[in-house]
Every structure is written in C-alpha cells, then in structure tokens.
C-alpha cells in the first residue's frame, strides 16, 4: 500500500512539474507589450469596428509611433488604398458580358461613387498634411474639411451598396461586390472615428491651455 502511494505521489509530482514547465514556457513566448501597439489598440476602442481597426493599422506601427496625427493620417491612407482597390475590382466586374440593364447601371453608379469616395479621402489626407502647427480657427477649419469629406466618402460607399438592393439585381453580383464595399466602409468609418477623436482631443488641449 505504501509503495502504491509513493508511486502515485511520484506520478503527481511529475505531472505538476510538467505543467509548471509548460506554463513558464507559455509565459516566455508571450510578446513584450509594445507602447505603439498598445496606443493603436487603445485608440481603436473609439471606433465602431475595433478589430478591423487594429488589423488594418498594426503593420504601420513604426510610422505611427504614438502620434495622434500620424495615426489619423495612416487610417485615412489605408482607407484610400482599400477604396482604390475596391473601385478597380468593381470596374472589372463592369466588363462582364450578359448583365441586365439594371445590373449594369448599378455597377456603373457604384464605380462613380467609389471614384468619388477615393477623391474625397485623398483630399482628406492632403488636408491633414497641411495642418502643420495650425491652431485655433485654422485647425478647426482644416479638421472641419476632413470630417466633411470623410463623411461624404462613407455616403458614397453606402450609395454604391444601395444600388444592388432589390429583386432586379442578380444576387451573385451583390454577393461578390457587397462584402468588398462593406469592408471598405468599415475601414472608412473607423478612419472617421479617429479623425473625430483627434479633433476632440486637440480641442480639449486647446481649452485647457487657454488662460
């Protein structure tokens, strides 16, 4: 009986030792928190699609660092890139033969809306680049332009999607284009949230510094 208890005790000790080693190994493999990564994750909490936000921005961490302005510019630049890619895809879909007039018109309108969206987002990136050390009314004017253009870009993207609603448009066409435009809309929505966050933080700082 004593021998069995000794053997059982040895087995339990070996199991506990293995579990302890495995836990230590798992802890050792965990990446050391990066200040910029934490900054991006924290900033993305203010967006409607935080997971998408983090995924789209993490690869630009070295450029973003912990700059609110650079974070906002990067988010808009990512939106421009994704919108351009989506617009190119929709244009290719427009070359498919055999579409009904309603479907062709929906694709054509979507192309126009996505091109407009690219233009507005590109304007927004340029406008943020002009901020420099702008303060007070100058800063507010630049930010108001950016907020207006990004909001309009989101409207363009939603208008594109609306064109594929209804029974007269082939469901397959909507299933192919819809998710791509929806993805772009999420990224752009996140960019607008970060724009608003940046503008709000600046206003708070400015009010605090006002004598």
Rg (C-alpha, Å):
25 Å
Mean pLDDT: 83
- Unreliable stretches (pLDDT < 50, length at least 5) are 1-8, 10-20, 22-30, 206-211
- Tell me the series of helices and strands, N- to C-terminal: HHHHHHHH
- SS element count, helices: 8
Q: How much helix is in the residues?
A: over 70%
Number of strands: 0
Structural class: mainly alpha
Distance between the termini: 84 Å
Dominant shape: elongated
Largest sheet: none
> How big a fraction of the residues is strand?
under 5%
Annotation keywords:
211 residues; mainly alpha; 8 helices; disordered N terminus; disordered C terminus
Structure description:
- The longest helix is centred in the last third of the chain and has 39 residues, at 171-209.
- The protein contains eight helices and no strands.
- It is elongated, with a radius of gyration of 25 Å.
- The N and C termini lie far apart (84 Å).
- The relative contact order is 0.13.
- It has 211 residues and is mainly alpha-helical.
- The model is unreliable at 1-8, 10-20, 22-30 and 206-211 (pLDDT under 50).
How is this structure best summarized?
By secondary structure, the chain is mostly helical. It has helices spanning 2-29, 35-44, 50-57, 61-64, 68-93, 101-129, 136-162, 171-209.
SSE arrangement:
Blueprint: H1 2-29, H2 35-44, H3 50-57, H4 61-64, H5 68-93, H6 101-129, H7 136-162, H8 171-209
Helix pairs in contact: 3-8, 5-6, 5-8, 6-7, 7-8
């Amino acid at each position: 009986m004593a021998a069995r208890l000794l053997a059982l005790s040895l087995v339990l000790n070996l199991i506990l030792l293995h579990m302890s080693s495995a836990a230590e190994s798992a802890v050792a493999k965990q990446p050391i928190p990066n200040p910029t990564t934490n900054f991006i994750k924290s900033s993305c909490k203010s967006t409607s699609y935080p997971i998408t936000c983090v995924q789209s921005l993490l690869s630009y961490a070295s450029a973003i660092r912990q700059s609110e302005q650079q974070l906002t510019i990067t988010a808009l630049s990512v939106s421009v890139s994704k919108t351009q890619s989506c617009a190119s895809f929709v244009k290719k879909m427009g070359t498919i033969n055999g579409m009904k007039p309603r479907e062709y018109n929906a694709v054509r309108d979507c192309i126009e809306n996505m091109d407009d969206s690219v233009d507005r987002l590109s304007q927004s990136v340029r406008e943020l680049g002009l901020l420099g050390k702008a303060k007070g009314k100058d800063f507010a004017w630049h930010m108001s332009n950016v907020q207006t253009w990004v909001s309009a870009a989101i409207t363009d993207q939603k208008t594109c999607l609306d064109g594929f609603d209804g029974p007269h448009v082939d469901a397959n066409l909507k299933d192919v284009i819809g998710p791509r435009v929806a993805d772009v809309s999420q990224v752009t929505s996140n960019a607008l949230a970060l724009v608003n966050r940046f503008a709000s933080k600046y206003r708070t700082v400015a009010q605090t510094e006002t004598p």
